[in-house]
Structure formats: C-alpha cells, structure tokens
Amino acid sequence: MKFASVLSVLGALTAVSAVQVNPLPAPRNITWGSSGPIQVRQLSLRDSHTSSVVSSAWLRAWNSITTLQWVPAAVEAPISNYPPFPTQTPESKTKRATGGIRYVEVQIKDSKADLQHGVDESYTLEVSKDSSSIKITSQTVWGALHAFTTLQQIIISDGKGGLIIEQPVKIQDAPLYPYRGIMVDTGRNFISVSKIFEQIDGMALSKLNVLHWHLDDSQSWPMQMRSYPEMTKDAYSPREIYTEADMRRVIAYARARGVRVIPEVDMPGHSASGWQQVDPEIVACANSWWSNDVWAYHTAVEPTPGQLDIIYNKTYEVVNNVYHDLSAIFADNWFHVGADELQPNCYNFSTHVTEWFAEDPSRTYHDLVQYWVDRAVPIFRSVGGHRRLMMWEDIVLSAENAHDVPKDIVMQTWNNGLDNINKLTTAGYDVVVSSSDFLYLDCGHGGFVTNDPRYNQNSNPDGGVNFNYGGNGGSWCGPYKTWQRIYDYDFTYNLTDAQASHILGAEAPLWSEQVDDISVSNQFWPRAAALGERVWSGNRDAAGHKRTTDLTQRLLNFREYLVANGVMANALVPKYCLKHPHACDLYKDQTAIS
Ligand SMILES: *[C@@H]1O[C@H](CO)[C@@H](O)[C@H](O)[C@H]1NC(C)=O
Ligand SMILES: *[C@@H]1O[C@H](CO)[C@@H](O)[C@H](O)[C@H]1NC(C)=O
Ligand SMILES: *[C@@H]1O[C@H](CO)[C@@H](O)[C@H](O)[C@H]1NC(C)=O
Ligand SMILES: *[C@@H]1O[C@H](CO)[C@@H](O)[C@H](O)[C@H]1NC(C)=O
C-alpha cells in the first residue's frame, strides 16, 4: 500500500491527471486508482436510517466542501525529483461523459449505538470507477461522521467553480485507540463557549473523540451549580460563568460531531474556589502562603492553595451534591475526579486532620489519602453501574499515594514518560497517556509567577543551565512540545502485549495559566492534529518505519484547512516550506527517521 503524500501527481507534472489528496489523519488503508478525477455534482445524501446526527453532519461537510472550494496548497513531488514545485490548481481532464457523482449513500449497521467509550468508529468509503455515487458503510453513526470528515478533505475544487474527486478510491478505516483526547482547562482562565466549540471543530476534523474538560481549579469556579448557586461567587466575573444550559450546549455540540465530553472536578487537591463559598471549613489551607520560596512549608505547587478537608464530614455531603448535579448534566459514562498533586503541608491548617493524626500516632499520610479514596469513591460510583472513573496517576504513584486504589479506575499518566506507563500497566490499570515530556501543550512558555528575582540577572549564570537561561527556560516542563515530538512518541515502547492492551489511548492537555480565548486555538492547533493521527492510524507505515516526514505535508496542509474552517491554528513553518514540499527538511534522506 502506498501512502501518497498530500497531492501525489502521477505522470507528467505539467499535465496534472490525478488529484489524490490524502486526508489527515491518514486512513488505515487507502487505495487510489488513477482513472483521473470525476466531476462531483450537487450531492444528495441517501441514508436509509434518516439519522439526524448523520444528516446534520453531512450538511456541515457539504457546506464546507462547497464554500471552501478547497485546493491543497502544494503538489507533492517524489523526492527523486527534488526540488519540487509549487501549487497549481489541478487541471481539468475531468471525466464529464458519465455525468459525475450525485449521491452519497450511507449504510449504517447499528444506528442506535450511543457515543460512549469503545463505540465502533470504523467506516469504509468507496468511489467505484465512473460511479454516480460515493458509498459509505459503518457500524455506527459515529463511524459515518468520520467518513464525512475524510470525504470533505478529498473532494477539491477543479479551479473552474466545479468540484472533483480522484477515482476509483477505496478507504477502510478505524482508529487504533478508542480514547483520543485533548484537555481544556477553564479553571485557571475562562474559555468562552464559542472558543470551546472551535476546539471541538478541530477535534472532529482530526478525528479526536474525547474533550476532557478540567472545569474548575483552586483559582476559580465557573460552573453554575443547582445545589449551591453561591459557588459562582468565585467565578472571575458574572460573565465568566457556564450556566447549566452552556454546559449542555457544549455537550450537544460535541456529540453532534462524535466527540465525548468527560468532565473533571479535581478533588481533593486543587480545590478552594467555589467550595469555600459553601463552607470555608471544607477547604484546608485556602488562605495560606503557598510558600515555594521556603519549600519546606509549601502548601501548593502553584498559587493559590486549597485542598478539600479529608476528615471533615461535611466535605462529603458537598462533594456528593456537586458530583450529582454535574452527573445530571454530563451524559458521558466517564467522570474524571482529579486526585493529583496533594501537598501534605496544606493539611497542617486543618484541625480535623491534625486531630485525626493525633488520635492515633501510627497514622500516616498514606492513610489519610486512603481515607479519601474509601469515602469518596463510593460517592463517585453512586450514580449507577455505568460510571467509570478516571484519576491522575498521583493517587497511585506519587510520594503521597493511597495504599489501595481500585483497579477499574482509569489512570491518566503525566510524569516520567515510559517509566510510569510501565508501572501502571504492570499494576493492571487501564491508562490514558498524557506524558508531560511529549504531550503537555502548555510547556515552554516560561514561568507565570510574579515577583520572581531569578529573572533579575544580566549575565548568563551556570553556562546557561540555570532557570530561564537555556535549560528549561523557566518552564517546569520546557521546552515547547513540537508536533514532531508529539507524533514521534512511542508510548507502548518496551511494553508486553498484556501491558499494551491497557493503553486506551492518549490525550494532550493544555493547562491554561497562560492561555485564554486569545491563544487557546493556536496552542492546541495544529499540534493536537499530530496527536490525532498518532492515535488514529499510528506513526509508522506498513513496513514499520516512522512516517513523521510523510506527515509533514499532510499536517502543513491540514493547518491551512483548519484555519479555512475557522479554527485559528498556529503557523508551523515559513509558507515557503508548505509550498515546496521537503525543501525545509533537515535531512534530504527520507529514511532518516526509521
Ligand atoms: C487495503 O485495501 C486493499 C483494497 O481493499 C486490499 O487489497 C489490501 O489488502 C488492504 N491492505 C491492508 C494493509 O489492509
Ligand atoms: C506539618 O505537620 C507535619 C506532621 O506534624 C510536620 O512533620 C510538618 O513539619 C508540618 N509542616 C509544616 C510546614 O509545619
Ligand atoms: C463522620 O461520619 C462518620 C461516617 O458517617 C461517622 O462515623 C462519624 O461519627 C462522623 N463524625 C462526626 C464528628 O460527626
Ligand atoms: C527497555 O527495556 C530494556 C530492557 O529491560 C531496558 O534496558 C531499557 O532501559 C528500556 N528502555 C526504556 C526507554 O525504558
């Protein structure tokens, strides 16, 4: 099977005869013929199931096809013909005799399957030679949606107001991993509903299917709560609130595009805002000095401190009500309950905790964290047997871990790359990979904390190792993670098959200390699309070679496509590199990464 590049030109390059556009993510299997493009007329949907999800998705795809009149930016030349040459609109040697294509026929086996973890997302797409229809089959409506986002990328303009597609073409496609996500953080800075929609648009186009919504953090509480309306006193302003209707709108918008929304309320750490409005006593250390300047006393790893009081009984009453309010809004079976970065010193501010320790001197900090697990997890499970919980790995792997965390809780790993993946899968946990060295999209922007005297230096100390001179540039997880770093990550490296079967997929988080509506889209995109392909069809070709170089032109074109579709993706290269495939490669040898 040949994975042609974006626009692979067969035959004489001056007389363009084939327009094989490869979409992103690359399908698992795409085979093109070279009969020359066929005219695409006004396409009508033929869907025997009359699913409104499918018909609305088709209208969106068709609208994008007809309004954009897309032509990928560059003609891909075989590397032997280097240097390649710039864009040209495919010349029309288009077949007209047959009357062109008029229908999209969609056949879905099970149109009732709900959008939940593990739902079948496979599809096939076929244009037979000189056929009048494009045939799509899928197991579920969610697979059909993926077929449309593929199709809308391979129908292009003929440069004369018409549309064409190369034919015949046959695509058999299905994701490698059921969990393909990004994480948006609306606790550090508010992100508007319309900007969240924009991220979902990018996700749908790149076949990412999970939006992990880190709703709140110690700094702000933006969600309107039925049980405790007072919690939004800790939103940044009355405008920076998600009403129940807003949350439902996000969920519906995502669902219509095949994207699940998994909510996260981070507990018991990262908790102050909102909670403290209900009862200040359920939050420990909320008004302490976070004390990173005197580390021995630190109560948080970033301002502002606050952790739910694990021993105070009322904590669980409030947690129960907040959790049930949100569970009634978020339709997904999964719920993320946080559990990262607990700081022991914080609990020195709680009389409930200090008395609990004093009652029995044999008690350890691990016992305290276990107490949280034992009391909170039954609450989290109380919405019914369909609920699957997700936690950050800290609850199992940090210095402040619990003794015994149920093995059915999905662990999201973010530290120590392959090491922690190995530990968690050996222990038998299902794992979502978010290793910060590869997938944290906020890294590399320097520190955000102020009054930082480490910047007050006019010469380069320690040969550039120190703080913001070289080194990590003042970012704990620097440097910035480029699309090549993301795509190259072999997160199942060294795992046994049994361990690898515990990897559910991967997710790229974007923590928002230095992100809001202004930059959220260009921080996610197009880097998240590189992850999209990594988890959809992998980073290797059929022969097992890394195809990072092969992705280059797909991704550069896809960035243009995102922008055209209203997703404000960042530039990755001088446009020259987009228009001259491989001119900007570091190595001419295309097998450099193997
Ligand atoms: C890809 O699809 C073609 C046409 O259906 C088939 O002949 C080929 O075996 C498939 N390749 C793989 C790797 O599945
Ligand atoms: C918090 O309490 C623990 C246990 O009593 C003690 O070891 C630790 O030094 C205290 N931390 C601070 C910052 O006082
Ligand atoms: C807190 O709740 C536990 C479990 O329900 C109960 O055993 C205990 O007596 C309660 N403590 C207080 C101080 O009310
Ligand atoms: C892979 O496993 C080998 C053998 O156990 C070990 O020596 C090596 O360090 C591992 N590599 C990584 C990257 O974990």
Automatic annotation (TrEMBL):
Parts forming coiled coils: none
InterPro entries: Beta_hexosaminidase_sua/sub, GH, Glyco_hydro_20_cat, Hex-like_dom2, HEX_eukaryotic_N
Keyword entries, A-Z: Glycoprotein, Glycosidase, Hydrolase, Signal
Active-site residues annotated for this sequence: E341 (proton donor)
EC number(s) given by UniProt: 3.2.1.52
Domain Beta-hexosaminidase eukaryotic type N-terminal: 23-154
GO molecular function: beta-N-acetylglucosaminidase activity
SUPFAM superfamilies: (Trans)glycosidases (SSF51445), beta-N-acetylhexosaminidase-like domain (SSF55545)
Catalytic activity: Hydrolysis of terminal non-reducing N-acetyl-D-hexosamine residues in N-acetyl-beta-D-hexosaminides
Biological process (GO), any one: glycosaminoglycan metabolic process
GO CC annotation, single: membrane
Occurrences of domain Glycoside hydrolase family 20 catalytic (ranges): 177-538
Family in the record: Belongs to the glycosyl hydrolase 20 family.
PANTHER family (UniProt xref): BETA-HEXOSAMINIDASE, BETA-N-ACETYLHEXOSAMINIDASE
Protein name: Beta-hexosaminidase
Naturally occurring in which organism (per UniProt): Penicillium arizonense
